[in-house]
Amino acid sequence: MTRNRISQAVFSYLLAFLFLLGLWWFLAWLIDNPGFPYPFTVAVAFIKLFPTSLWGHLCHSLRRVLVSLSLGLVVGLPLGFWAGRDPRADAFLSPLIYLLYPVPKVAFLPVILVLLGIGEASKILIVFLVVFSQILISSRDAVKKIPREYILAVSSLGAGRGDIYLHVILPACLPDIFTALRISLGSAIAVLFFSESLAGNTGLGYFIFDGLFRAEYAAMGAGILALALMGLGLYGLLHLLQRLLCPWSR
Amino acid sequence: MIQVKDLTFAYTAAGEKVPVLKGISFTVQKGESCAILGPSGCGKTTLLYLLAGLLAPGEGTVLIGGEKVTRPSPRVALIFQDHALLPWKTAWENAVLPLRLKRQREREIRHRITPLFLRMGLAGLEKRYPHQLSGGQRQRVALTRALALGPEVLLMDEPFASLDALNREALQDFFWEIKREYNLTVVLVTHCIEEAVYMGEKLIILSPLPARIREIIPNPGAGERNYRFNQKFWDTCSQIRRILEEGRGFDEKQD
Ligand SMILES: Nc1ncnc2c1ncn2[C@@H]1O[C@H](COP(=O)(O)OP(=O)(O)O)[C@@H](O)[C@H]1O
Ligand SMILES: [Mg+2]
After folding, report:
1. Sign of CA dihedral A234, A236, A238, A241
2. Closest CA to B138 of B203, B176, B94, B96
3. Is A30 a member of any domain?
4. Rounded to two decimals, what is the model's pTM?
5. Which atom of ligand 1 is nearest to the CA of B13?
6. β-pairing, B33-37 with B59-64?
7. pLDDT of res. B250
8. Does residue A99 sit within a domain?
9. For the domain that residue A146 is a member of, what is the CATH number?
10. pLDDT tier for residue B35 given thresholds of 50, 70 and 90
11. Within 10 Å of residue B217's Cβ, how many Cβ atoms?
12. Cβ atoms of residues A126 and A110 within 8 Å
């Protein structure tokens, strides 16, 4: 990317940010309700609460998302590769996936809470389920569309099974895996938010609802802001990782 | 060098057997260049996969250097139709892949491939990805990858099909140079009559699917300088065209 294009991109993001800020300010003025505080009020609350309590809740939520994403990759990727490569595995896994994929995973949350209690395990499990099914489907489909010639070409050069995964299957699927992570990140954060507001006393979901119940709307706004920043940060991280790991698809 | 005996092969598609090759037998001498000509979809790629040890024959055998082919060997290199370069690897990484798979050290890899890269006219293109290369450059990266392990036999699947006419003729001449320099035995398959006659000292003509050998024609002029401007070249092309046309009537009567 040239310097010029970078500064152009920065400029357009700045513009979008200012537009959103202006919209927020305008809506706060229009609605004129303490439940919808001005940007400045929220910013002050954010700066005040961040070092004392907000930071800790953010860390809890962030850790839960990262652990669930990693688990989703570790379990979903091998299963997806297996289903993509072996028709027998696919014949077994595909019907299961098709039946379960459209069911909103968050509907299982009450069951999980009953079985696992309100601690870490249930929150991580519910987010894991969201991420895992997306990764499984995406990686299976990505493997299936790899041209046969790529695998034959590497085999004809004397590659073993491991080499084929390293040099063909993994890089061929990487862009699709990033897409799957981006898609599932949104629902993962939403489900986490829901589970945190429902059970326990840690995490941004808890913090935001705590603000609501105590009618501290500035604190509630600061929590929402932190959640938004966390999502933004994770998207940025994925974007950066993809640029780093998939330089050919730029 | 290469002995193919009664080779028969069928794909299984949707539970049904589709015969592709029927009773194919021919030999290629060491250092000879053999061109196999057949219409699209007749089984040329399948035949090369069998020679490369990527598929196992239903019946019959392939011997290369007296040994039965059962799996890929570093003595036999295959250049795929449309090159099959890996899009996520640079030109250099594609070319050195065979050595990486042999777990060679970085220094040895450099030592062996740098002169080859230079010979192929690819110097300066190391960091480009395949989609940033021209068709001819991609073809030469594929050739570098094929020669990286020092093979005796080079199999080529429609190697010039995706090039424009001028590039194609230049690259065909380049292949002749490389063939002599590296003392290669070559089997090339194509659906293009002129290409077969220019590249093959022995011409094997296949019938449409399932492929059988229709005729084997010696073509000693191939590889001569300016063979394209030689009357013998055009005579051989016409001879083949006649064989293909007679065959068309023959096949229709059979069906
Ligand atoms: N993997 C496969 N499974 C089933 N049929 C195949 C497969 N690959 C090729 N075929 C069929 O075998 C025939 C010969 O294919 P191929 O060897 O690629 O022909 P050519 O290279 O001469 O165009 C074609 O009819 C094709 O449809
Ligand atoms: Mg073909």
Report:
1. negative
2. B94
3. no
4. 0.88
5. 4
6. unpaired
7. 54
8. yes
9. 1.10.3720.10
10. very high
11. 17
12. no
Q: From the CA of B32, how many Å to the nearest CA of chain A?
A: 22
Residue B249: which pLDDT band, with cuts at 50, 70 and 90?
low
**Domain assignment present for A1:** no
Residue-wise DSSP of B21-75: EEEEEEEE-TT-EEEEE--TTSSHHHHHHHHTTSS--SEEEEEETTEEP-S--TT
A35 lies in a domain? no
Which of chain A's residues have a Cβ under 8 Å away from the Cβ of B54? 152, 155-156
Q: In this predicted model, what pLDDT tens digit does every residue of A20-51 receive, in sequence order?
A: 999 999 999 999 998 899 999 999 999 999 99
Q: Can you give the C-alpha Rg of chain B in angstroms?
A: 19
Q: Which of B46, B131, B64, B146 is nearest to B99 (CA)?
A: B146
Tens digit of each residue's pLDDT (9 = 90 or more) over A154-174: 999 989 999 999 999 999 999
B128: exposed, middle or buried (Cβ count in 10 Å: 0-12, 13-18, 19+):
middle
Minimal CA separation from A233 to chain B, in Å: 27
Summary mean pLDDT of chain B: 92
Residues of B with CB under 8 A from a CB of A: 49, 52-54, 72, 74, 77-78, 80-82, 84, 86-89, 97-98, 100-102, 129, 131, 145, 149
Closest ligand to Cα B43: 1
Interface test with A, best of B71, B99, B101 (most A CBs within 10 A): B101
Residues of chain B with C-beta less than 8 angstroms from the C-beta of A246: 88
Asked if B77 and B154 touch (Cβ cutoff 8 Å), the reply is yes
Give the domain range for residue A176.
40-249
Strand order, beta sheet including B153-157: B76-79, B153-157, B185-190, B33-37, B202-206, B213-218
What Rg do the C-alpha atoms of chain A give, in angstroms? 22
Are the beta carbons of B101 and B181 closer than 8 angstroms?
A: no
User: Strand pairing of B16-28 and B59-64?
Assistant: unpaired
Number of domains in chain A: 1
**Residue A248: which of B88, B98, B100 has the nearest Cβ?**
B88
| CB nearest to B86's CB, from A150, A155, A156 | A150
Subunit contact A246:B102, Cβ cutoff 8 A: no
The enclosing H or E element of A19 equals helix A3-31
Question: B187 Cβ partners below 8 Å, 6+ apart?
Answer: B2, B28, B34, B36, B48, B51, B153, B154, B155, B156
Q: What is the ipTM of this complex?
A: 0.91
What are the backbone angles phi and psi of residue A159, rounded to the nearest 5°? -80, 145
Pocket of ligand 1 (CB under 6 A): B 11, 13, 18, 20, 38, 40-46, 209
